[in-house]
Amino acid sequence: MPITGFLGPAPAKVALAAERLERVDCGRYTREKVRYSVGENERVSAYVCIPHDLAGPAPVVFCHHQHASRFDLGKSEVVGLAGDPDQAYAAELAERGFVTIAPDAIGFEERNWSPDGKSNVSWFELSTRLVHGRTLLASCLHDVSTALDYVTSRPEADPRRIGFLGHSYGGRMALWAPAYDPRIIASVSNCGCIPFRRSYSHDTGLQAEFVLPGFAVEHDLEDVIASYDGTALLISAGATDKWSRGAEELVAASRGVELAMYDAGHVFTAAMRERAYQFLGERLADF
User: Fold this and answer.
1) What is the CATH code for 17-283?
2) Are 21 and 34 in contact (CB under 8 A)?
């Protein structure tokens, strides 16, 4: 079975029906808040950052937010409006000339439907799909692909040059997204590369979004990476980070994958981000 076969049925594509909600001049780039449809009666908000003075269509980077059990945060953190300044990589990339898009993942920020707006709804989102033979990961990947559909419809974005960057939860998605959408030609996973075989411990466990019935019987993340259609991958890992366990063995078993190992924990420091930006810049350079 192909790797994507474990995802179950893919959500149906619908018309984007996109709208712009706000536009803010941030000095070296413009930040827009937009909304578009990912399914019937399901609309998603995202931030799009557009560098000023573009000479032509620019490379695009999907910036996936972290988890950190902060379900009240999502897209706002990666554009620097809230949370940890070290997570504002969508804004930093825009300052470097990349078009970036950062939506909320299911269950985070504006997509958190809990009464207090900050409780964990992921296991509900998973279980209600599983009983119908579907998976939460399929929905999450569909949302990534739909965000790329939207941003590449804009004249500022070059649809041939698409990258992905994420930390923690976003780092895990950075491994899966290129297997689902081959338009992603460069991806950086920071502190989120732990394979399934190393996740069966009480201090890590499995995140709801990555529960795929039967997948780990014969497969692991090496198989996900092997399914790429030419995507360049950088795994950025912390030597003392539990979510980076297995980074070296994963890279050793995967052809053409680069590893950046740091004497660090579960962080995304300036040095780690700079290496990620350099990698994306080199791989998404103009043809």
Assistant:
1) 3.40.50.1820
2) yes
**Could you tell me the pTM of the whole model?**
0.98
Distances (CA, A) of 246 to 134, 221, 240: 28, 10, 11
Per-residue pLDDT of the chain (287 residues; tens, 9 = 90+): 678 889 999 999 999 999 999 999 999 999 999 999 999 999 999 999 999 999 999 999 999 999 999 999 999 999 999 999 999 999 999 999 999 999 999 999 999 999 999 999 999 999 999 999 999 999 999 999 999 999 999 999 999 999 999 999 999 999 999 999 999 999 999 999 999 999 999 999 999 999 999 999 999 999 999 999 999 999 999 999 999 999 999 999 999 999 999 999 999 999 999 999 999 999 999 76
Q: Are 61 and 94 in contact (CB under 8 A)?
A: no
How many C-beta atoms surround the C-beta of residue 243 within 10 A?
25
Q: Tally Cβ neighbours within 10 Å of residue 281.
A: 17
